[in-house]
Design goal:
The chain is an alpha+beta fold. The protein folds into 3 domains: about 1-45, no CATH class; about 55-215 and about 425-505, no CATH class; about 225-410, no CATH class. The chain is built from 16 helices and 19 strands. Strands 7, 8, 9, 17, 18 and 19 form a 6-stranded antiparallel beta sheet that branches. β3 and β4 (about 125-130) form a beta hairpin. α3 (about 55-65) crosses α6, α4 packs across α14 (about 420-445) and α6 (about 135-155) crosses α8. The longest helix has about 35 residues, at about 470-505.
């Protein structure tokens, strides 16, 4: 969905909800208040808050399930989470500093070149297109729920009561929380308290690992329903795609070859397209066909780039072909060095491709195209595997890459869509990126994140012998957290500038 449409629709939903919330509170006060109390919902302008205690018993069972061996394994796991959190702290700070002081020249060049607006995040080199904003919201909700479940399970394990769980939506930004008993939490020894505070970061890291494992095994898990990396199937053709039309590619066509280059994956699809410019193929054509269809005119050179011309420049259907010498340097006597042929009819008569000038039948002809142009022949089949007439396109491969969407997942059944596993794979990739990002951000000492509580716990636990007064230790904790918050705020301003403000100027 277009990001502007998404924001307009979301704003409209919030306005309608806020209107009815005000209306019911004024006209149906008691029934509506009872409904809000039972569901845990709170509606304000551009915000929705949901709080529940339904999961308390479930979390209590999860945290206390198992014998002493299981409990020991859980404690060991959360101890690893504490070590990981302190290992992520310098990495997170370095990423913040790199984000703040990076020049952003590459991004400005890309934006000026017509690339769609992208969302810059705190992981250098990872940019997110705004068109996939729905994936970001879904991923954020999943990562936040996993994060808070980690805190809740660790709290139950340390005998800290969990009093509730909730999620808030500030416009399109979701924030989840686990409500714990602060008195019980603050009464724990420092290592037990750190287990609870670092559990969310640890769960995000484990969740990222699980998602990465699913990405690595997607070909196996999808094999009952899809074939993977055998061919590619066309999933989308944009409105401006030059390959649209009756004689062009169609959605659900399976592309098997491009200019004789086998297409088995999305990577080979792109590499075969780009190689059509770098390594322009030759075509084996019979001498009789050339003699019957030659439309050569006087040989000249193009006025702009000096390209040799043997065809009428006003006829877009023809191209000048050069007869390629074989390995021995022999040129067929019965053919001129350059001939002008109809491109489509010529490629339909091709028996095989040639590179060194040797053909089992006929002679090797290579089209004389400009450096930015290539002839691409797409061999394809339909969903049932039946061969279809090849699609011939003359142009630049990037026009195809930008306007034709393909998938390496070919459905085994007609009711399946090739886009479904791609959407699942994209969601998993975003979960990996967002989970690692959320773990890094929460490890940083910043107000509102786990890092602030972790910093306070460490300061008050390890500086007791050096700094006797609680207020001074608290001041040290506030100063450290303020520095981390300042770095985070500067990084967020840089992200907002690169993603939203600068493209508008």
């Amino acid at each position: 969905m277009d990001p502007v449409v998404f924001f307009v629709v979301l704003t409209s939903i919030y306005v309608v909800l806020y209107f009815f919330d005000r209306f019911f509170k004024s006209c149906m006060h008691y029934p509506y208040d009872a409904f809000l109390k039972n569901t845990g919902l709170t509606v304000n302008f551009l915000t929705i808050h949901w709080h529940t205690t339904v999961f308390n018993r479930t979390l209590l069972r999860w945290g206390s399930a198992g014998n002493s061996c299981t409990r020991k394994m859980k404690l060991t796991s959360f101890n690893v989470g504490v070590v990981l959190t302190f290992a992520l702290l310098p990495i997170g700070l370095i990423l913040l500093i790199v984000t703040i002081f990076s020049s952003g020249e590459a991004e400005s060049t890309a934006t000026a070149g017509g690339v769609p607006v992208q969302l810059e995040i705190l992981l250098p080199g990872v940019n997110l297109p705004l068109e996939e904003f729905g994936y970001y919201i879904t991923t954020l909700v999943l990562c936040l729920v996993v994060h808070e479940m980690g805190h809740a399970v660790a709290a139950v394990l340390e005998d800290v009561p969990v009093t509730g769980f909730g999620i808030k939506f500030f416009f399109c930004l979701p924030l989840a929380y686990t409500e714990l008993s602060h008195d019980h939490l603050n009464g724990l020894r420092w290592i037990r308290k750190l287990r609870v505070l670092c559990a969310g970061i640890w769960h995000n890291f484990v969740f990222a690992g699980v998602c990465y494992l699913l990405i690595s095994t997607v070909g196996i898990t999808m094999s009952p329903l899809y074939t993977y990396n055998e061919h590619v199937v066309v999933t989308e053709l944009t409105r401006k795609s030059p390959l649209r039309g009756e004689r062009g590619l169609q959605v659900d066509n399976q592309v098997t070859q491009i200019n004789g280059c086998p297409v088995t994956s999305e990577e080979s699809w792109q590499s075969c397209l780009l190689s059509s410019v770098k390594q322009k193929p030759g075509y084996c054509v019979s001498a009789d066909f050339v003699q019957l269809n030659d439309e050569s005119s006087a040989i000249s050179h193009h006025a702009i780039d000096g390209q040799l011309q043997c065809c009428d420049e006003l006829n877009p259907n023809v191209s000048c072909f050069e007869v390629v010498e074989d390995a021995n340097g022999d040129v067929p006597v019965e053919l001129p060095q350059h001939v002008c042929l109809n491109v489509r009819r010529t490629l339909e008569e091709v028996t095989e491709h040639c590179s060194s000038g040797v053909c089992s039948e006929g002679f090797c002809l290579r089209p004389l195209m400009r450096n930015i142009t290539a002839i691409m022949t797409f061999k394809r089949t339909n969903a049932r595997g039946e061969k279809l007439p090849p699609v011939i396109y003359v142009g630049h491969p990037w026009d195809v890459i930008r306007t034709v969407g393909v998938s390496a997942f070919v459905p085994r059944h007609s009711f399946l869509k090739a886009g479904w596993p791609d959407a699942w794979l994209l969601l998993l990739k975003y979960n990996v990126v967002f989970s690692i990002g959320l773990a890094l951000i929460n490890a940083i000492p910043c107000f509102g994140f786990d890092g602030a509580h972790i910093t306070s716990t460490v300061i008050h636990s390890f500086l007791v012998g050096r700094v006797d007064q609680y207020a001074k230790r608290d001041l040290i904790s506030v100063i450290i957290t303020s520095v981390g918050s300042l770095l985070f705020a500067l990084a967020m301003l840089k992200v907002a500038w690169l993603s939203f403000l600068r493209p508008l100027l």
